[in-house]
Amino acid sequence: MIRVSVFYPSAEGTTFDHDYYREKHVPLCVRTWNPESVEIDKGVDGPNVAAVHLKFASLDALQQAMASEGTAAILEDVANYTNIAPVLQTSEIVD
To answer: Is 95's pLDDT higher than 90?
Structure first.
């Protein structure tokens, strides 16, 4: 199982619309990429204002999702909810 985590670091002058993210952006990701599961974090304490974790059955499934034509629309949509440059991490779940 592969997990892609997208983190949005907190910093002075950054903005993040949690409602838009939860109601519009993440559902767009789900429709486009069809992950196995999705979890959204709203930062309470720590370095990130938000994060999302998407699980895929394999690295190949992740690569196919990222190569889909809808990925461009997902990337363009980021400006609708934040001015933060997201930080991505791809992990193999070993537990």
So the answer is: no
